[in-house]
Write a structure and sequence with these properties.
By secondary structure, this protein is of the alpha/beta class. It has 2 domains: 200 residues, Rossmann fold (3-Layer(aba) Sandwich); 83 residues, UDP-galactose 4-epimerase, domain 1 (Alpha-Beta Complex), CATH 3.90.25. Helices cover 38% and strands 19% of the residues. The strands form 4 sheets. The chain has a 7-stranded parallel sheet with strand order 3-2-1-4-5-6-11, sandwiched between helices.
Length: 319
């Protein structure tokens, strides 16, 4: 298939570009490089494009005539969304609306959307399945949920077939060493810890040690970025089936690890020590977030390859 990978110069998007190329698809990356890196687009073609640029989008759809679109170009910093909600609603909602309008106008009806566990808000039970109530507590999560509602309306009105994947914590990087995780500023725990291991930062901060967990630190569900990419390929296959219905899937490992566990595991695997600073809680951080991926495993035949925290960390240290 010919696939537009929007946001393909970013962390997850660049891994998706590689996975789709290796699966035999014709890949075209669209990215405005606001947070992505063009040198991370190792396969297929690259087009500089902002999803709010309706004229450029229409030209690109007419030029390439893609069969499907995968969308990875949202802003995703929860704290920033609290202080600058306009940026998030404008790009994540208006930009996505612009993108799927261009799809409909050019008869492209298969769409895979990167949603987020942030749509659920504070968990009422664990693990979180697809039926869990959706009460997001920040503009980032609200923007993702708004798009999910838009997609339902577009399916009814225009015949758009879509999948929304709700990620929990994407982690790890390309085991071949061709791709890495590069954010500025870096906010994800594992790359921050690895920066401490490599001497690129003096310490790692732990935000809160009095949560209702075994060791008092937050527990999160980590899923390897290659497993996320594989889920998208499974989703693409699913959308190509004549009788398939649009659907939402949660993607996680199904188990959780605390911040302290992650830090200690990295120290054990690398044999390196570093300074850990105990800090205050961050506003809006739930004590535990763990996904149920049962639906994806049943319907998409999705399987986790990097099933342990050790396997995920090893992709970061074996370079």
């Amino acid at each position: 298939m010919k696939i537009f990978i929007v946001g393909g110069a970013g962390y997850i998007g660049s891994h998706m570009v590689k996975a789709a190329h290796q699966a035999g698809h014709d890949v075209i990356t669209l990215d405005n490089l606001s947070t992505g890196h063009q040198d991370a687009v190792l396969y297929g073609k690259f087009e500089f494009c902002d999803i709010l640029d309706t004229i450029k989008l229409d030209k690109l759809f007419k030029k390439y005539k893609p069969d499907a679109v995968m969308h990875f170009s949202a802003y995703s910093l929860v704290s920033e969304s609290m202080t600058n909600p306009y940026k998030y609603y404008n790009n994540n909602v208006c930009g996505t609306l612009s993108l799927i309008k261009a799809m409909i106008d050019n008869d492209c009806k298969k769409f895979i959307f990167s949603s987020s566990a942030a749509i659920f808000g504070n968990p009422e039970y664990l693990p979180i399945d697809e039926e869990h109530s959706k009460i997001p507590v920040n503009p980032y999560g609200k923007s993702k949920l708004m798009v999910e509602e838009i997609l339902k309306d577009f399916e009814l009105a225009y015949g758009l077939k879509y999948i929304s994947f709700r990620y929990f914590n994407a982690a790890g990087q390309d085991p071949d060493g061709e791709l890495s995780e590069r954010h500025n500023p870096e906010t994800h725990l594992l790359p921050i810890v690895m920066q401490a291991v490599n001497g690129q930062r003096e310490s790692v901060s732990v935000f809160g040690n009095d949560y209702d967990t075994n060791d008092g630190t937050c527990v999160r569900d980590y899923i390897h970025v290659n497993d996320l990419a594989n889920a998208h390929l499974k989703g693409l296959h699913y959308l190509n089936q004549d009788k398939s219905l649009s659907a939402e899937f949660n993607l996680g490992n199904g188990g959780g690890f605390s911040v302290r566990e992650v830090i200690e595991k990295v120290k054990n695997i690398t044999g390196k020590d570093f300074k850990v600073i105990e800090g205050m809680r961050r506003h809006g951080d739930p004590s535990m977030l763990i996904a149920s991926s049962d639906k994806a495993q049943k319907i998409l035949k999705f399987k986790i390859t990097f099933s342990s925290l050790e396997k995920i960390i090893e992709t970061l240290v074996i370079r």
